[in-house]
Each structure stands twice: as structure tokens, then as C-alpha cells.
Amino acid sequence: MKKPDRYWLPGLVLTLGLYVLVSLSVSESIDFFFVVMLGTLVFCVTLFYRLFPGSYFTTIALANFLSVYACLFIFFLESNFGVAADWIVRLSFALPILAYMAGVWLRRGAIHRLVHHESDTRIHYAPRVFLWLLPVMAVGLATFLVPHQGFSPETVGLLLLASMGLIAVTVLAVCRDVTAFLLETGLLFEDFFARASALMAPTLAFFTYYSFVVIVFAGVYRLIGRIIPGDHFVVAGEPRAISFMESLYFSIITLSTVGYGDLVPASLLIRAIASLQIVIGVWLIIFGFSEVLRFTREHPVHGRRS
């Protein structure tokens, strides 16, 4: 077994950070099962990087994969299994992860051959590889029948455990293809960031112009409120003068054409200036994309892979 590569620690931190963020967003507490799941993820991520030392971008792919799974699990849990016991929820969450790691360990030879290009490294693009999502989706859709049957909390918990058990069996069977997809996704991330780095110069130039417009109009909004009498803004339903930070905030949401409604123009003068800023913002976006495309044509960016 290989030693952990230099990307193991950042991968572990990134993965656990996402898990902690999602978990605390949902439960707002740290309990025994939270600690158990944290330990489970430490073990799984460490095992993954001992088996398949990769790049920093593979760590992003793995962390993203686990965070997407966590979000989907929470969605189905809150929709259909809200009365299930906490220990069943934690166990159900862990089952597919543990099944995947068990499958990775059992089929590590085949996965290593795939990683080292001794077999078809593009197999994950074949449509059949994604067929495993069909039974997983079928199980997920079937769970929406649970809330309408009037089951007891104990029965709901058992149904959750059974559903995640079926998904775990499916993941165990297709772990090779899932791992290939993860590793390839890491390479795609690497290509993306390489291209993004090469476009840093025109991007920074665009944001320089953008920030210039934001600051200039923020100053104008602030000075108009101080120089010209009258109520020029309504903040949270109350007409009053705005601070510079509020004018800066208003300038940003105006240029992005968001308009949350918490801070709105009240005078015709401010409305006219805001309209002009919106037009300039649209022009900036068109100009920015045009310059980035021109730079790409004049300076072709090549990915790291052939």
C-alpha cells in the first residue's frame, strides 16, 4: 500500500470542512454521531489517497462528490424521513460511503490499471456507466410515497435504512466506474484551473474597470444625498440619507442589475443615474466577454493533458 501523497492533507481538510459546514447548517449542534461521521470520513478520505495518490484537483472532485451526496441525502431526509431516529439517520448516511470504500478496496487492482491507462480510461463516458443512477433515482423517487402512508417513526427509520442499503449495494457494484469518474473529474478541474490562470490578466483588467465604475457611482450617490436636499433613497421602507457603505452596496447591486428591494432610489435624479449605471454595466459585460474571447484567440491556452 502506498503512503499518502502530498495532497492527502489538503484533500482531507477540504472534505471535512465541507462536511462540517453542511452538518452544522442542518443540525446546528455537535453530538456523538457527528463525531462518529467525522471519524468515518477521515478514514475514507485517508484510504482513498493511500490507494490513489492524485492531484489537488482530485481532492476537489472527491470533496465535491461527498458534499453533493450529503446535500441530496439531507433533501430526501427532510422531505420523507424527518421522524427517523438520529442513529438510523447517521447509519443510513454512512452506508453508501462505507460500501463505496469497501468496493474500492476490493477492486483496487482493476482501478489501478484504469488509472495507469492499462485499460480504457475513457470508459466512464460510455452511457452504460451512468445506468447505475437509474436504480438510485428510482429508490429516491419511491421514498416520496413514505410520508403519505402514515407509518410509525420506527417503520420510517427502517425504510430509510433499507433505501440507503439498496443504494449502498448499487454503489458497491459500480465503485470502479465511480472512481474513474472522480479521477477524470479531477483532471478536468486541473484543465479548467490551468485555463482560468492563463486568462487572469484580461479578467483582472475587466474587474478593474468594473470596480472603478462601482466606486465612482457610489461616490455620486453619496454626494447627491449630501448636496441636494430631499429624500433620494428609501432604506427598509424608511426615506433617509445613506452612508458611503450603503451607497457602495447600492452601486454594486445596481451594476449587477440585482435590486433586492431593501435599498431603492426615491428621486427621479437617482433613478436616472441608476439607469445610466445599468446601461454602463451591460456594456461592461459585453466588452469584458469580448476582450476575454479576443485574448483567447490571440493566446491559445492548452490544457495539461494531450
Tell me about this structure.
The protein is 72% helix and 3% strand. The chain is mainly α and 306 residues long. It has a three-stranded antiparallel beta sheet with strand order 2-1-3. Strand 1 and strand 2 form a beta hairpin. Helix 2 packs parallel to helix 4 and helix 6 packs antiparallel against helix 7. The longest helix has 31 residues, at 268-298. Mean pLDDT is 77; it is low at 118-125.
Key features of this structure:
single chain, 306 residues, mainly alpha, three-stranded antiparallel beta sheet, 3 strands
Largest sheet: 3 strands, antiparallel
Quaternary state of this entry equals single chain
The number of helices is 11
Strand elements, count: 3
- Radius of gyration over C-alpha positions, nearest whole angstrom: 26 Å
- The residue-averaged pLDDT reads 77
Order of helices and strands: HHHHHHHHHEEHEH
**What fraction of the residues are assigned to beta strands by DSSP?**
under 5%
Strand order of the largest sheet: 2-1-3
Q: What sort of overall outline do the alpha carbons produce when their principal axes are compared?
A: extended
What class would the helix/strand composition place it in? mainly alpha
Low-confidence stretches: 118-125
Residue share in helix: over 70%
Summed up:
With 306 residues, this protein is an all-alpha fold. 72% of the residues lie in helices and 3% in strands. The chain is built from eleven helices and three strands; from the N terminus they run H-H-H-H-H-H-H-H-H-E-E-H-E-H.
